[in-house]
């Protein structure tokens, strides 16, 4: 029986893989203008990092992490009951922030008094969720993290940058909704959390089992519950924005004023609590409405001023976001936007017969060395079928080489768009291609 890709994973076939490359390139260009530099951290980290950073009680950590273990350690565990040491307890990263913050702390990238570290990453994340459209077990994210700055200008510029990126990749602005909230800080959130817990206790009879557990562990997660009855109860719950401390209210107000000033349209959503424990103050999410069902968040993030300390570093404010590549592809499809074909073919060299193959092969190399995407036939196709192949590859030009042309030291160069032909000397093909393309 044939073996398929694991459940919840997808192959990015060439068209999509090319788009993924382009997507990362666009991110590097857009985020680069805001001073973000690339960082590449391991796909595995010590499980403890996620437990401490993201929070033990979160869905991501308590239910959705993939453990990574060497075959030998697994054998020892199963056969000899010897659990791996903490250092060897690894998990595949369910998100990118914890690893980047760990790297910033480990390499002291933000020494006291330094300018903020602005970092961006792209790569696969792993969550053992129930797969469905737009929800995979391995998916690709592009994300940024800015560590060392607390000012609301960082929050606002990150949000503006995220929206610029979506527009640059072609997601229509009118199909997106930008949601904004503040989650307060360690000064104001604990008291607010208790108020929500008390409110939930008073409405315990109307809440689902999961929300009753949430009331104990993390009541704010109940705002996320999809059960309509819970949603109705939580709609009347105390709102965080009415319970922010003065500093958080001022910070949130400044972020909104900066976004207003930049003409960025957003909706305040007090229900936006996001699933990870590390968020403080500003949180945001971008959703698209058409055709994506419940998996309609294409990106989101927020501030995490306590995370560096959680993972053992000095107090360093931070903010970041991540966006899902596969969901952006779905959003583009839902909006009827074709993602651009990155593949191009500048020249196809067609052989009239086998006697010219060696010279054609050399010509193909010369053109490639000059930077032109060049292809030839490798299957002994007839001339007619080589033209068909050139068409299929979208070749802009076809150079036909036959024994007569070879004797004369030239090719027939055909422009596939205008159907015009010209004889070009073999040694001038590269020059002619440069002129034509320029
Ligand atoms: P999160 O870290 O949950 O805020 O995720 C950030 C973004 O990654 C989301 O807005 C989605 O676009 C994407 N994402 C998260 N989980 C998945 C998943 N299981 N499958 C596909 N994309 C995901």
Helix-strand layout with pairing:
Elements: H1 14-32, E1 37-38, E2 44-46, H2 47-54, H3 59-63, E3 67-68, H4 71-80, E4 90-92, H5 97-106, E5 117-126, E6 138-147, H6 152-169, E7 176-182, H7 189-202, H8 209-217, H9 228-235, H10 246-261, E8 267-268, E9 280-288, E10 297-303, H11 307-310, E11 318-324, H12 325-334, E12 345-351, H13 357-369, E13 374-376, H14 383-392, E14 395-401, H15 403-408, E15 410-415, E16 421-425, H16 429-437
Parallel strand pairs: 1-5, 7-8, 12-13, 12-14
Antiparallel strand pairs: 2-4, 3-4, 5-6, 6-11, 7-9, 9-10, 10-11, 14-15, 15-16
Bound molecules: adenosine monophosphate.
Residues 95, 127, 129, 134-136, 139, 141, 275, 297-300, 322-324, 326-327 line the site of adenosine monophosphate.
Give the gist of this structure.
This protein is α+β, with helices and mostly antiparallel strands. The chain is built from 16 helices and 16 strands.
Q: Under the CATH scheme, which class of the domain at 14-173 and 287-334?
A: Alpha Beta
The poorly predicted ranges are: none
- The Cα radius of gyration reads 28 Å
User: Span from first to last CA?
Assistant: 52 Å
Q: Quick one: how many beta strands?
A: 16
CATH superfamily of the domain at 14-173 and 287-334: Bira Bifunctional Protein, Domain 2
Shape annotation: elongated
What summary fits the major beta sheet?
Answer: 8 strands, mixed
Strand content: 15-25%
Helix content: 25-40%
Please provide a written account of the structure:
The radius of gyration is 28 Å and the shape is elongated. It contains 16 helices and 16 strands. With 438 residues, the protein is of the alpha+beta class. The chain has helices spanning 14-32, 47-54, 59-63, 71-80, 97-106, 152-169, 189-202, 209-217, 228-235, 246-261, 307-310, 325-334, 357-369, 383-392, 403-408, 429-437, and strands at 37-38, 44-46, 67-68, 90-92, 117-126, 138-147, 176-182, 267-268, 280-288, 297-303, 318-324, 345-351, 374-376, 395-401, 410-415, 421-425. Among the domains are: 14-173 and 287-334, BirA Bifunctional Protein, domain 2, CATH 3.30.930.10; 345-437, Anticodon-binding domain (Rossmann fold, 3-Layer(aba) Sandwich). The strands form three sheets. The chain has an eight-stranded mixed beta sheet with strand order 1-5-6-11-10-9-7-8, with helices on both faces. β15 (410-415) and β16 (421-425) form a beta hairpin. α1 (14-32) packs antiparallel against α6 (152-169) and α6 (152-169) runs parallel beside α10. The relative contact order is 0.12. The site of adenosine monophosphate has 18 residues, from β6, β10, β11 and α12.
């Amino acid at each position: 029986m044939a073996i398929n890709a694991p459940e919840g994973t997808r192959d990015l076939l060439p068209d999509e893989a090319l788009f993924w490359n382009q997507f990362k390139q666009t991110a590097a260009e857009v985020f680069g203008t805001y001073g973000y530099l690339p960082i590449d951290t391991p796909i595995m980290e010590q499980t403890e990092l996620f437990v401490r950073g993201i929070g033990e009680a979160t869905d991501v950590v308590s239910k959705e992490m993939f453990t990574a273990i060497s075959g030998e350690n697994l054998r020892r565990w199963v056969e000899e009951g010897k659990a791996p040491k903490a250092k060897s307890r690894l998990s595949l990263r369910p998100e990118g922030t914890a690893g980047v913050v760990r790297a910033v702390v480990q390499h002291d990238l933000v020494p006291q008094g330094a300018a903020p570290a602005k970092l961006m990453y792209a790569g696969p994340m792993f969550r053992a969720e129930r797969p469905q459209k737009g929800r995979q077990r391995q998916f690709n994210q592009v994300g940024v993290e800015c560590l060392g700055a607390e000012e609301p200008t960082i929050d606002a510029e990150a949000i503006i940058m995220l929206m610029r990126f979506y527009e640059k990749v072609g997601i229509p602005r009118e199909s997106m909704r930008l949601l904004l909230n503040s989650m307060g800080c360690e000064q104001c959130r604990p008291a607010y959390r208790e108020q929500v817990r008390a409110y939930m206790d008073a409405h315990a009879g109307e809440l689902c089992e999961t929300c009753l557990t949430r009331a104990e562990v993390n009541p704010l997660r109940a705002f996320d519950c999809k059960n309509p009855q819970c949603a109705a109860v939580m709609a009347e719950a105390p709102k965080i924005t009415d319970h922010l401390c003065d500093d958080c209210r001022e910070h949130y107000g400044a972020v909104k004023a900066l976004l207003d000033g930049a003409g960025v349209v957003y909706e305040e959503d007090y229900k936006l609590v996001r699933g990870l424990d590390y968020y403080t103050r500003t949180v945001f999410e971008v959703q698209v409405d058409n055709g994506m069902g419940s998996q309609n968040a294409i990106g989101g993030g927020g501030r995490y001023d306590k995370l560096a300390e959680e993972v053992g570093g000095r107090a360093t404010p931070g903010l970041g976001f991540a966006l899902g590549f596969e969901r952006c592809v779905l959003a583009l499809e839902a909006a009827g936007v074709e993602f651009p074909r990155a593949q191009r073919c500048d020249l196809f060299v067609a052989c009239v017969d086998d006697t010219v193959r060696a010279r054609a092969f050399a010509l193909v190399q010369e053109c490639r060395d000059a930077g032109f995407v060049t292809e030839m036939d490798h299957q002994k196709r007839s001339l007619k079928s080589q033209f068909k192949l050139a068409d299929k590859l979208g070749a802009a030009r076809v150079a036909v080489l036959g024994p007569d042309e070879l004797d004369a030291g030239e090719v027939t160069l055909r422009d596939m768009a205008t159907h015009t032909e010209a004889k070009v000397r073999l040694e001038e093909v590269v020059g002619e291609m440069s002129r034509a393309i320029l």
